[in-house]
Give the backbone structure.
Amino acid sequence: MKYLRTNIHEIETAAELQKILNENENVMVCCGRMGPMCIPVYEIMGELEEEYDNVKFYSMAFDSPESAAIRTAPQCRGFMGIPFTMYYKNGKVAKATTSIQTMAQVKANLDQYLS
Amino acid sequence: MEKIYDVMILGAGAAGLSAGIYASRGKLDTLILSEGVTGGQMVLTNEIANYPGVEMIKGYELADIMKRQAKSFGCTLKANVKIVDYRLAEEIKEVELEDGRVFRAKAVILTPGGKPRSLNIPGEKEFEGRGISYCATCDADFFRDKRLIVVGGGNSALEEAVTLTHFASHVTIVHQFDHFQAFAHAVEEAERNPKISFVMESELRTYEGNGTLQKVQIEQLKTGERTYLETDGVFVFIGYMPNTEVFRGWVKTNERGEFIVDQDMKTNLPGVFAAGDCVEKRYRQVTTAVSDGTIAALSVTEYIRSKQR
């Protein structure tokens, strides 16, 4: 079931997330709601899809039980602001951030962790 | 020959998108460049209930409709860009992006909007998303049965404090004055709420903690006394400031940094117009921004047509 209206593909199930992580080296997932801290990150990701063609960009609904793997990830311990944004390298969490991020912050993480 | 747009709109909030709709609908070759998210402060608004002709709509949905409308008329939109240089005093206006691209236009409409004020005190960057928040709707449920502080004394601060009591065990409102600027009904509702207490004439000086926010230092402004208050989170609602810093010195602003424009939204620079929350005015609503953007686009159309005569 889709909860979000984003310009990037929304992952709907935990199984789909796992399949994507298994099949792709570099994956960025923004787990949030349709709110002011999350929408800017989805938009930034949509704009970076062309520039970072080595990375797969996805959104996932924070309130869906299917996103538990992100919400309960050890790398997200202490996070108290949505979205939780995950950078996966070869299926493992390379970096996680909390709350709104700027274009510069997202690009810096992509360059450092998913190059 | 480098492309020269008819008009370049700097900002993609309600004013910028409205200007984009009117300018491109008027057959002007129109480019919107935005350093922030498309929709500006509309995106920050959960529900918009008083936009004429629309009974109730999410802020991001209204922004999305405006964006699609502008694009449908041929407007080009580039969001989340970083502008590093502006050359607005020349006949042909130029804007340079961080990646070296330069965009040119015969006229410019400045619609940079505003940004939330932050306290700019030690610990702020460290604890953003780890106890510091600017959005109760987004983050309130991380603070169930926790102690919270709300900073501010306007409508947003008082209303969001009441909302946060549905989640938190207690909310302390810290405000720099001895009275609130919020409407009386908002103040009364907060004062009646048994989970809210008030620390007046005080300001936060530091955010402190270990991984997550644990306490803040508060200064009582009359006595200068500083004390610590333990807390699990701080929500900051201290208003907005116009995003006009980079233009000051060329484009005339008032003492609050708001652009001074005439009734046609013209600034002091020929071919440079301004609209939305960045201009000097009393009321700031989506509808007033839309109105400003419309007037600016129509004025630009007239400006460009007069140059061609």
